[in-house]
Amino acid sequence: xKSTLGRWRGQLRAGDYDHLAPRHLARLARLYALxxxxxxxxxxxxxxxxxxxxxSDTAFVLGSGRSxxxxxxxxxxxxxxxxxxxxxxxxxxxWVRADYHLTAEVDFMDEYACRLRENPLYARTVFxxxxxxxxxxxxxxxxxxxxxxxxRIFRFRRASRSANEAPSRTARTLVHGYNSIxxxxxxxxxxxxxxxxxxxxxxxxxxxxxxxxxETRDYEKPGITASMRFSGTAQIVSMLGxxxxxxxxxxxELSVLNPQSLLAERLPVFDRTTLS
Length: 276
Description:
Blueprint: H1 2-9, H2 22-38, E1 43-44, H3 47-51, E2 58-62, H4 73-79, E3 83-87, E4 100-103, H5 109-118, E5 126-130, H6 136-143, E6 152-161, E7 173-177, H7 180-191, E8 195-199, H8 233-247, E9 253-256
Parallel strand pairs: 1-6, 2-3, 2-8, 3-4, 4-5, 5-6, 6-7, 8-9
Helix pairs in contact: 1-2, 2-6
């Protein structure tokens, strides 16, 4: 661990790590070293191999908002005709095959990983996992071999956290912006999808598809309730709207499935009749 930590200290500016407690910095170094060992149990994809996995021109990016429960069974069948990109807590679902799953931040590692391993809809998923020294959750997921044995994995790094930047055109570096919907949407752009539909990205409250209406997650920060809007909503809506404006001249359509989503202020609403 000391050699790993020392090697990274030599490559980073002092300001990059001086704010961290020594124990946290040591954990990051330990997990980075563990990741090097764990990845040999998986199939690491090159960017070219990742691009070759795309099978349609349309991708549904699947978040965790409660509007997902309003999608009908026939609509899920239709969505399955296209590629799907899931993120965060979507593995709790039982509706549709996940072609790609993006991981960067994890709330409860062992529970999360168990869902990925045991959900049959993730049996053939490509896991797009944050990597690098700072990728604490991604390095733990791979280092502890918590993903299905032999799974296909692609590693990426985040860029432009809390900054309004245009999407990158390489899956190696994904713009994070103000939350994980940007990483996943940027992945769809980098993979070459021409039509990108955001589902379960509501932002008018913090209700989730696996909870009852009005139920607050038991691990929310004190004072946060299910009826509240997401923090940073204005920035999220503005930035995704800017992305839609940048992508449209290239023939790439970015839309939202839920017409009530706050994203509909800037994004066109996807025509759900095409799913019937």
